[in-house]
Amino acid sequence: MGQLRRAARLSQADLADKLTRAGFPMKQQTILTIERGSRPLKLEEAHVIAEVLGVDPRSLVETAAERIAALAELRAAEEEIARCDREIARLVQEIQRNDQLRHKAAERLVALFKAEGRPDLVSIYADPEPVENLITEWRKTPNG
Known about the structure:
With 144 residues, this protein is mostly helical. It has helices at residues 2-7, 12-21, 28-36, 43-53, 57-115, 119-126, 131-140. It starts with a helix and ends with a helix.
């Protein structure tokens, strides 16, 4: 409603004055709360406001409905982002835990292959690839 009021070159006080003269006593503060969405707009008020602003009464409702829909979409997207953040944190912990297990298993293999006198196999497991490289390679795969 504020955009429509400004387009009509009226201040909140001017609109309140015109509405008061039209039989709907209002103050500038009331217009402010309506524009902020803190106070619902009554049907009768919407018709008079639309008449004063020279617009179709539906434009007042459509703007509010669009704002409410956009706000709902924003909140849903923010909730989904928060859920993804939690999932990422969980996955990072899981990766770190599995990386520790991988290193321990590699250390056991190195010890076993050293005991068997297999330096060729020791070199394969002595320095496991950093987990970041594995993740990068996984992302490159078609299913990754």
